[in-house]
Amino acid sequence: MARRRQSVTIKHVAADAGVSLQTVSRVINDEPNVRPAMKERVQASIDKLGYTPSIAAQRMSGSRSYLIMALNDRERTIADWRERRGTDWVDQMLLGGMLTCAEHGYRMIVELIDTHSDHVERELSAALMALQPDGVVLTPPHSENALITGLLADRGIPFARIGSIAPGPGFALTMGDTKNALDATRRLIELGHKRIGMIAGPDAYSLSGWRIEGWRQALGEAGLPHEGLCAAGDFGFESGNEAARALLTQDDPPTAIVASSDQMALATLDVARELGLSVPRDLSVISFDNTPIVRFTDPPLTAVDQPIAETISRAVELIIRARRDAAPDAVIDVEGSVVERGSTAPAPHLTGVKRA
Amino acid sequence: MARRRQSVTIKHVAADAGVSLQTVSRVINDEPNVRPAMKERVQASIDKLGYTPSIAAQRMSGSRSYLIMALNDRERTIADWRERRGTDWVDQMLLGGMLTCAEHGYRMIVELIDTHSDHVERELSAALMALQPDGVVLTPPHSENALITGLLADRGIPFARIGSIAPGPGFALTMGDTKNALDATRRLIELGHKRIGMIAGPDAYSLSGWRIEGWRQALGEAGLPHEGLCAAGDFGFESGNEAARALLTQDDPPTAIVASSDQMALATLDVARELGLSVPRDLSVISFDNTPIVRFTDPPLTAVDQPIAETISRAVELIIRARRDAAPDAVIDVEGSVVERGSTAPAPHLTGVKRA
DNA sequence: ATGAAAGCGCTAACAT
DNA sequence: ATGTTAGCGCTTTCAT
């Protein structure tokens, strides 16, 4: 391959404007100590030649790489893509991440890392050495992986933890999990439900716990019971099936269920159908995620919308500003909302009658 | 900001192994003229220190950047994300692209470019200068934009054109559009349909034409008419609504429709419902895309599955091999398939009776 | 088969 | 306010 060189470099601009490289550099980076007239002249040359600095060269000189790495769980992400489950997490991440990066001249680059692997550190370290990103966005469950956060902290790389509130290095951001679960449960209580079940996510994710907390809090406020009404899944369809079955086939089953993922809610719909329960007449369901498919289920699912794009956008801004500003101590909580659709309705009148 | 340096560099490895930088470089790049024993010794140091070369430095020295840029239409992509329509094109692109890139030590980086903008060239040029990718994957409609292909050809950057068969620079790949439309239409003919409509995509996409061609060819084989049975949309829901209405409210309307996108098929379902037509009893529908939502529509849509991941994967391989191998002259056509679901059924008996 | 020297495009540090 | 120098980590010459 022919040795490919940059077509227009800082040298060309400097020559064209009749100034030193350094002055051009100062203009590019909007640094002080350049007279307006000079700045204008250099900018004119830049525009004329259509010059854009090479991020590789910028990085080499000890400056920024203008790259932000978004780390996702390899196994889960690939499975979602392969199965075409309609999870649009990555899309929403790119929506918030890429656009905000672009506003600041940065790029977002998606990287997949194994969670369970014993060589997480090697994988991550290799990615960091290869790319030299200026920051990293950690999504669950990586955001709570001490090996990962520790390594980033050691290397002094700014990073954001989505779905983590633990103190320590890195910006912590959450998507209103507790309040979302609280709101969803309250809504069901308003509809007259007295026994409201919860299909929780796996323990490995803190947000699973937060949602349980919100659910319990709402029940507590209303003096309603929670005992025996919480079953845990792993966010996947199969686990949701089992959890829903466990909840709905017990004595005095719930008339409403909050599921911690769309897939588990989908499974709940199936189980209900199988048990001869009509949704929402006999059973109300609210899910978390609000992925595109929930508008097309039968009935369409009332769902908690997670502000993924907004949250990643905030994370990126924090990372980019990290050089200047001090880290905010507090956890940043971006609010979600409940989108009401057809899977929720007033509690059935015959509450308390065993149906299974 | 502290001037952040690479933690482990080629120098460290060279020192550890007691050899010159050059020898280490040769080992990294698997070059000849290194004795096995030497190679082993160096590799041991690399493993011990957990060394991975910086792609910025590799690029700077005139070698590869190990970056492949995937170019998508900015406006459409962002709209799909914002509306959360369930289009998983980008996901499938990443599935095929990222994984294949990773196999070869490359990274895929997604970039959005305006199609209609008059400064496409400036935008693209800036991205190329900043990132210096070793190759570019062009998706429709960029793959048929002469400004873009011309610029890449001029710069000598290997690129792939997805959904383009035009001769000229760059690897051309298609996803079996003609055959897919042919198969879908043939399937409807097998089911006894005599009047089969087509809701085509916009002219700006060549693949719209290829699909029309396949549809027409199948009709021709069976001696069936096509006149007045083709309406064009822009792939979006609204346009599908109009097109479906035009087809279904005419005299002697079709009993089956092939829609060039899921969104337009969704609209067709709505129009059918509105007109009192039951799908698939009165009307069969086959769509293109097979996005996740089509499993949840009422009824679930029979759809043409586009091998996006596989196609992008092939494109990436071609680009990476471009340095060694000669460009294949022929268009590479990756086959799709029809996934049968609930929106197709035998033609209604009362064919020919006006219903609208 | 190995090593030494030069340079990629850019910026930090140090002049002036 | 501007210019000069040195060097980032690596690969390409060019020696040996």
TrEMBL record, chains A, B:
GO terms for molecular function: DNA-binding transcription factor activity; transcription cis-regulatory region binding. Keywords: DNA-binding, Transcription, Transcription regulation. It holds the Pfam family LacI. Gene3D superfamilies: 3.40.50.2300, lambda repressor-like DNA-binding domains. Residues 8-62 form the HTH lacI-type domain. PANTHER family: LACI-RELATED TRANSCRIPTIONAL REPRESSOR, LACTOSE OPERON REPRESSOR. This is LacI family DNA-binding transcriptional regulator.
